[in-house]
Task: inverse folding
């Protein structure tokens, strides 16, 4: 497939935003039960604003993918069958809850909703945080299922796709949270960095597993099934177009084999290995956490590029030779 | 239920691309607006087509054959491109099984093309919406045309009658009979999309003629050289002289 930068930025930006929101609310939940010191409203509020900014960036990027962005509202109608439609609904819903969660903290409007038997007061921000957490996971699932539900694209048609979207988005969000905490609440940076290391390790394992899986895939469609001729030697002589077509532009990444071989270790190092090293060092030197986030984000951009480029669409069987 | 479809006979397709040009001509002139072309007279002409003829070489020289392979939307009975559409612009008509795109609802996200294993849909780079074969839905029901013309443009154009059009759910239709009797098959059956369009395979037509069948055993002229010589004042015309 040809990687579209609009979709690459959409998925990586909202992934980081979802992870950041989950990190903030994880901290608030720990604090609710007295496991960590509760931070100021500003900490959670401005953190949510940062997440919201990333979400807005992702949403803007997504519009560049559409031929007719002025009709985008129509894409919320087919939620019964289309994961893309479901994402279109869940993304603004999540943005709204992140906004309300942040607003609840920044305005200090946190009326008590219920008191738990242990005496912990569940206020409005906690309720919004729980709803936001559910929506964050729903959004990860919707985004990943857009790709995982396409059975012809076997590189994507796997539960690993969903798992990896959750883990990679979570990793970049927690790394960003660690960097944010290092400046806004330095004594809490270790908590976020610790989780960031764990999730980045899990994401590394998940992505590695999908690379191993994809390397062993055997194509289901062949030249023989594509045109229905049972002969071992079939060579295309003409594809019915001299100057290429939509089919030759949309489904081929157009990069060399050596580029593909280079980008794979590049994204593994940038997205997983270097951030892990910097996170470990960053526990002592907070400045490195920012660098860890930037490198990991660039790594995830490369990862997403590779994710799209690696998917080999069966229609490519019909488009092999210009002639 | 009706399922309109094309049946394409690879045994007689000669790869002339008349179906391609007639399809383009009809569908670029309709009320849905033109099918865009870019650099039509330039070095790399490209554009949106509903139908293309591809060519494959089967086997290795000298034991090879050239196969011309017209490819358009197969109007699957279980079309994977339809449920993924976020706007409902892609739909399959209940009454005749044609898969269509509502150009006024399409947002041009191209997700349907990812879900089509055949590469049957082409994005119109100027209209910014997805386009695909309509089975000439604006022809086949047009009662202002004579009945013989109410067929897809490609079917009308084919000089070798390699393209048949009809209802594959009607067992007595021309297309159903062709599929049944000439071994019609679907493309990429492994995905379970149940394409409505079928292809008829290459068929080797052989006839064995024995040597004795080449001559009439009772031919009275079989023994040559025994013809009577015409007399001097008789006609020398062969037909007359032979008798």
Result:
């Amino acid at each position: 497939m040809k990687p579209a930068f609009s979709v690459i930025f959409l998925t990586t930006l909202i992934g980081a935003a979802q992870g950041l929101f989950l990190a903030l609310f994880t901290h608030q939940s720990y604090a609710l039960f007295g496991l960590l010191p509760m931070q100021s409203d500003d900490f959670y509020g401005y953190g949510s604003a940062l997440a919201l900014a990333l979400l807005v960036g992702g949403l803007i990027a997504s519009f560049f993918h559409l031929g007719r962005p002025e009709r985008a509202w129509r894409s919320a109608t087919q939620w019964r069958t289309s994961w893309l439609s479901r994402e279109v609904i869940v993304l603004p819903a999540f943005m709204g809850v992140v906004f309300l969660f942040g607003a609840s903290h920044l305005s200090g409007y946190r009326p008590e909703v219920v008191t738990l038997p242990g005496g912990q007061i569940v206020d409005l921000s906690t309720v919004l945080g729980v709803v936001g957490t559910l929506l964050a996971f729903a959004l990860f699932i919707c985004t990943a299922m857009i790709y995982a539900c396409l059975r012809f694209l076997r590189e994507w048609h796997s539960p690993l796709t969903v798992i990896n979207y959750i883990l990679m988005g979570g990793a970049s969000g927690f790394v960003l949270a660690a960097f944010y905490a290092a400046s806004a609440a330095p004594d809490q940076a270790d908590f976020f960095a610790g989780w960031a290391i764990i999730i980045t390790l899990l994401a590394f394992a998940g992505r590695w597993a999908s690379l191993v899986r994809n390397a062993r895939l055997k194509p289901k469609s062949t030249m023989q099934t594509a045109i229905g001729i049972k002969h071992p030697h079939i060579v295309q002589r003409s594809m019915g177009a001299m100057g290429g077509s939509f089919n030759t532009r949309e489904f081929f990444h157009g990069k060399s084999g050596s580029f593909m071989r280079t980008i794979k270790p590049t994204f593994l190092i940038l997205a997983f290995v270097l951030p892990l090293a910097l996170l470990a060092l960053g526990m002592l030197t907070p400045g490195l956490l920012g660098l860890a986030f930037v490198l990991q984000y660039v790594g995830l951009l490369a990862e997403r590029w590779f994710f799209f480029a690696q998917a080999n669409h069966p229609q490519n069987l019909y488009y092999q030779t210009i002639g | 239920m009706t399922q309109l479809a094309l049946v394409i006979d690879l045994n007689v397709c000669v790869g002339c691309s008349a179906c391609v040009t007639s399809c383009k001509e009809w569908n670029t002139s309709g009320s849905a607006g033109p099918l865009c072309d870019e650099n039509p007279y330039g070095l790399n002409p490209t554009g949106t087509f509903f139908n293309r003829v591809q060519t494959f070489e089967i086997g290795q020289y000298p034991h090879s054959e050239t196969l011309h392979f017209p490819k358009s939307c197969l109007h699957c009975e279980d079309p994977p491109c339809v449920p993924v559409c976020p706007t409902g612009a892609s739909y399959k008509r209940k009454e005749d099984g044609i898969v269509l795109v509502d150009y006024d609802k399409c947002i041009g996200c191209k997700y349907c093309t990812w879900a089509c294993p055949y590469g049957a849909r082409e994005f119109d780079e100027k209209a910014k919406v997805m386009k695909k074969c309509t089975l000439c839905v604006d022809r086949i029901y047009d009662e202002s045309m004579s009945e013989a013309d109410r067929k897809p443009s490609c079917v009308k154009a084919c000089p070798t009658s390699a393209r048949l059009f009809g209802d594959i759910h009607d067992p007595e239709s021309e297309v159903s009979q062709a599929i049944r009797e000439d071994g019609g098959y679907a493309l990429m059956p492994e995905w379970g999309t149940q394409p409505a369009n079928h292809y008829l395979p290459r068929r080797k037509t052989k006839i064995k003629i024995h040597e004795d069948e080449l001559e009439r055993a009772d031919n009275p002229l079989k023994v040559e050289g025994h013809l009577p010589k015409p007399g001097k004042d008789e006609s020398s015309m062969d037909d007359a002289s032979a008798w």
